[in-house]
Amino acid sequence: MSRITQDTQKSGPRHVAIIMDGNGRWATQRGRPRLFGHHAGAKRVREVVQSCPDVGVDYLTIFAFSTENWKRTQVEVAGLMSLFRRYITKEARALDQFGARVRFIGDRMRLDAKLIKLMDDLEEMTSSNTAVNLTIALNYGGRDEVARATKRLARDVAQGRLSPDDVDEETLPRYLDTYVLPDPDLVIRTSGEARISNFLLWQSAYAEYEFIDTLWPDFTAEEFASLCASYGGRDRRFGAVKT
Ligand code: FPP
What we know:
The chain is of the alpha/beta class. The protein is built from six helices and six strands; from the N terminus they run E-H-H-E-H-E-H-E-H-E-E-H. Helix 3 runs parallel beside helix 4. The chain is globular. The N and C termini lie close together (9 Å). The N terminus is likely disordered.
């Protein structure tokens, strides 16, 4: 039996990841189009980001658009892409002034050039900030990320930069989009669905999950703080047995 040493954690989560779900239902409940819900959802992001330092969260990762979301109607997809462009343009200054370091994960290849430029510029502009690390998952899918990582890893093997014998649990994550981030401690999904929907599959191996009924546009910094606080009361064992 393994002994628990430094792996036992009783403090709050350092990295929280959020699946922001329920925008569509929130809008439908109000008799409005789904995009109205996405706009309301985008407005909730700032408050949660700005509350991170108060609750001791250094890394916040949010799921904005999945590799599966392309299957939505053309109107919704185009509306979301336009929302992301507007969000970055409008929020860049506030995020920077707050001290957020913004990164994007996901496959950029399918995104339009204007959006990619905005993403690159925001990453560059905020690259020396330290108040909180905000990672936005955009055209992200966990399986797609592992497949892209494996492709890069295979190229390194083929070109003699990496030996197959050196491929292990330490090596592979260096090829993931998240290579500079710690693994998430807590994953929150709003709107009552209890699924992980291809989000941070490799990285969440030991994460705690909170599935809450609140629809994302109703999510508040208070609820975020309360979820972080209840995480702090848990005893994580990482597969070991407490002695
Ligand atoms: C899921 O709700 C939400 C999305 C697919 C988009 C998430 C986007 C935002 C919260 C807004 C933008 C974020 C940023 C960072 C600008 P859903 O449409 O699946 O809701 P439903 O399950 O009720 O239909």
